[in-house]
């Protein structure tokens, strides 16, 4: 498929067929992410590839346990909001655990440009904090992961770049540490990428027209 066709036909896939994804295809997708751009070539990503259904079921339990606690507390303030959050999580988070493959991507917060220099000249803390608004580490990760999304499409799969689980990232990280022994100081679960053969027609919400978001300086 031509690159243009891949870009314009990309959709977030949330329903997958029960079809295996061979290891060689998974490695091609991850390698496409590996060669993506990163600030100062930090390559701030590490992959945990999950195909084990028992692991996914346990992960679902971790998320559901945290969800029940959050929903209960939110319901004390706003029952409609609590019900909305519960529905959102089931539709836009837990679906990923039904995919043939789930890639959990860990990252860390890379220091932004001028951070070291600002500290050297004793800039105020609010100025240091403001540098992180542009979060170069997450910009790098997003750009690199899109490589993997397009590679997956080229191989005949669908995927969905997810951050909707990150409200429970501490519990998920603790579970991964307990189950796999994986932990790195300063690293956190940044995104998840379910991968599989799409089941049904893919649709996406409408996009804003380009003329609403561009300014030319000529």
UniProtKB/TrEMBL annotation:
<feature type="domain" description="Nitroreductase">
    <location>
        <begin position="7"/>
        <end position="196"/>
    </location>
</feature>
<comment type="similarity">
    <text>Belongs to the nitroreductase family.</text>
</comment>
<keyword id="KW-0560">Oxidoreductase</keyword>
<dbReference type="GO" id="GO:0016491">
    <property type="term" value="F:oxidoreductase activity"/>
</dbReference>
<keyword id="KW-0288">FMN</keyword>
<keyword id="KW-0285">Flavoprotein</keyword>
<feature type="transmembrane region" description="Helical">
    <location>
        <begin position="91"/>
        <end position="109"/>
    </location>
</feature>
<dbReference type="InterPro" id="IPR029479">
    <property type="entry name" value="Nitroreductase"/>
</dbReference>
<keyword id="KW-0472">Membrane</keyword>
<keyword id="KW-1133">Transmembrane helix</keyword>
<keyword id="KW-0812">Transmembrane</keyword>
<dbReference type="InterPro" id="IPR000415">
    <property type="entry name" value="Nitroreductase-like"/>
</dbReference>
<protein>
    <submittedName>
        <fullName>Putative NAD(P)H nitroreductase</fullName>
        <ecNumber>1.-.-.-</ecNumber>
    </submittedName>
</protein>
<dbReference type="Pfam" id="PF00881">
    <property type="entry name" value="Nitroreductase"/>
</dbReference>
